[in-house]
Amino acid sequence: MLSTSEIKEVKKVSVDLLTKLKDEKLKVDKWRESRQITASVKNMINDTLAYLPLQAYSDDDLTIKSVNVYQHIYMNYPGGGQNLYANSII
Description:
Layout: H1 4-24, H2 35-49, H3 59-76
Helix pairs in contact: 1-2, 2-3
């Protein structure tokens, strides 16, 4: 179970990661078709998730979370600054 401060840290890391990805990688129209960009996205995810509270997540947890985050980004951010959430009504 994560403490309140760990939850805040996870949220901060998550927001920072998505902001970086949107600003640097996901603006490219067909980023998913470029091996170089997809590798860069994966590396950025791995590097950023390394800042999660280490006492709360094992190396195996971080590997699984990295794969899950990449799959989420791949499915929901097709490129060109578009995402499936932009037109959602909350």
